[in-house]
Specification:
The protein is α+β, with helices and mostly antiparallel strands. 33% of the residues lie in helices and 31% in strands. It has a domain of 131 residues: L,D-transpeptidase catalytic domain-like. It is built from nine helices and 25 strands. The chain is rod-shaped.
Length: 346
Amino acid sequence: MSKRIVIALSSVLLAVLIMAGTVLVADAAGPEKIPNGVTIGGVDVGGLTGEQARERVDRQLLGKLSRPIRVTHKGRSWTLTPASAKIRVHFDGAIEQAIQLGETGNAFSRVYRRLTGERTERDLDTRSTYSKAGLTRLLDRVQKGVARDPKDASVELVGAKLELTKSRDGLRLDRDRVASRVRKALLNPSAPSRVRAATIKRQPTISTAKIRAQYKTALVANRGTFKLTLYKNLKPVKSYGISVGKAGNDTPAGKYAIQNKAVNPAWNVPQSDWAGDLAGTVVPGGVPENPLKARWMGIYDGVGIHGTSDDSSIGTNASHGCLRMHVPDVIELYSRVPVGTPIWIV
């Protein structure tokens, strides 16, 4: 081999050695930096040292998570403050993984990445924690704020008129759904910080529909005005003149129901002094001696609604406790009132 070739080869070898040494020195001298393209919890840490990355993640990620979370419901809101939430972000492990990504390969590949800015697309997860006690206290406050007992529908007599109180659904907080939404807002900075309070309806025992069906027909007897009012679907449709009990034989006040009905009823005469010789007997229906004319609608303990031949008594206290009506009126009413119809006597 000629001397010239030897010198040339030696020069090439020397150049390679110098270049390799330079690479090794550059690799050893360069700070341990995270490759470009690496993110931690969505925060870009490419090109940073471990300490720089730690400061950036702590500032940006914790700053995004340290925000009040508001639970809302129909114009009201309840707030979980950062102090109560006690958010903590744990990312030391992610920092170590990011640094290790920069240490992969050999000295040449590492120096090449630094020189060319080659990207390593990786997003490393962090772990965040919060105060479970703080979340529980928030849910307790929201529950108290939204909770509502169901209300049954009812029908009451107010001022001698029937009034319907409609049913209302109750509410309770759907704690599992709301807790899940709040946790997401606490741990995910991109999640909304306003959370809607999901609720679950509590059905009343007696609905408005049920009470309307129960009171499709109703009666109100007003002893002061001598009027018997027929209600259909809780609306007054017609009033009739009546006679009520006289002193000592008062028509009993209260809420009752039509117990039985009869056409041209027999009269079971009560054992009372006013009944005279008829006391304790049964007078057939349709005969002159029977004061129960045309129709009978029994109410309570021998008291009922019936027709009368004494039309002049209507509008007075004249009966022995029953509600008397004109015969045409009692016949009409009879066909419109089923057994079981509630009746208020006031």
